[in-house]
Amino acid sequence: MSGRTSEVACPRPPSLATGPVYLDYNATTPVDPRVTEAALPHWTDFFGNPSSEHAYGAEPRRALAAARAQVAGLIGARPEEIVFTASGSEANLLALRGAVLAACTHLVVQATEHPAVLETARALGRLHGTRVTVLPVDHHGLVSLDALEAALRTGADRTVVSVMAANNETGAIQPVAELAALAHSRGALVHCDAAQACGKIPVDVGALGVDLLTVVGHKMYAPRGAAALFVREGVALEPVVYGGGQEGGLRAGTENVALAVALGTAARLAAADLAAGRVAALRDDLHRRLAEVLPGRVRLNGPDAPGQRLPNTLNVSIDGTRGHDVLARAPEIAASTGSACHSGVHAPSPVLTAMGFDAARALAAIRLSLGRWSTPADVDTAVQALEAAVVDC
Ligand SMILES: Cc1ncc(COP(=O)(O)O)c(C=O)c1O
Fold it and tell me: Is 240 helix (H, G, I), strand (E, B) or coil?
């Protein structure tokens, strides 16, 4: 574990110092110490309600407004277009349930969306009779314009389309701008779950042309429980929590200022330095070296073309292995498979299955996701650990 601190400029969270090499940044990121430092006074000192007109409300109100502007700044939005939520799942719920209950009778999603989108779609169908169309993806996990075009031709209903910016398992980057332009030309609303993209690649709501966009703090060095939804001015949504009128009336409840400040600070840091080139170089080195030590056995899951995959994500299947066996034999690293384990039985990842891979390929998958504190020494450790684990399997 030595030598893992020198290459990165920002302070390393102490939590990374003693454990295995962390290669699961897509699951969640360590909290950046600068984020903790900014948020802390809002737990310890500034306890006031941001709506209070007396002196105790002033600093929370100022900090909340500043945080909203910082989140807006990361994605090219205006501060009034940001609604803080308690999770990415909740932001997705506000977007999709909100659009359906306000105006839409048809919801179009794609097959590799996060369960927060797919299960919301299912619930809307069950509870509100919403017509749901699930678009297929190709071998790289990408949606085609033709598939969306066909879905938009199937009825006269008002449609909301939800397509993620980048996939959590494979890093596949969807052609959101093109899909959004097509959807808008047919009068549809467009939501984008950018949980995995924000902080890793540039995300601009104007360039993407989306109406609703989900931002998630714990994928970009803020704590879990801090997220936001961008709601373009003029887009009508049904609220997700009813009550006191906070968050533009869309999510009632006294604001969690500390978490908003954490998200705002994380957004400011991300906007200043995406560090995508450094991380991509490490990720590509890891891929190349794994392919060298395990010749002919390493298969990339997800697109290989530049610009089509998140710079930090490497999802590979190693022929003749099962991902969970490999990771169980490699305690030097912390990574994940996309498969779910129920009572000791592993089910292939629905994402890889939707991409057309058979069970053997999907069950062999391991997802290695790098981030702000990944170093060349981490890559050395991972290559050695995975090579040894595969020989052992
Ligand atoms: C693409 C995507 N969307 C949504 C979520 C849900 O975010 P949260 O865990 O904050 O509810 C995640 C988290 O894994 C994600 O990767």
Answer: coil
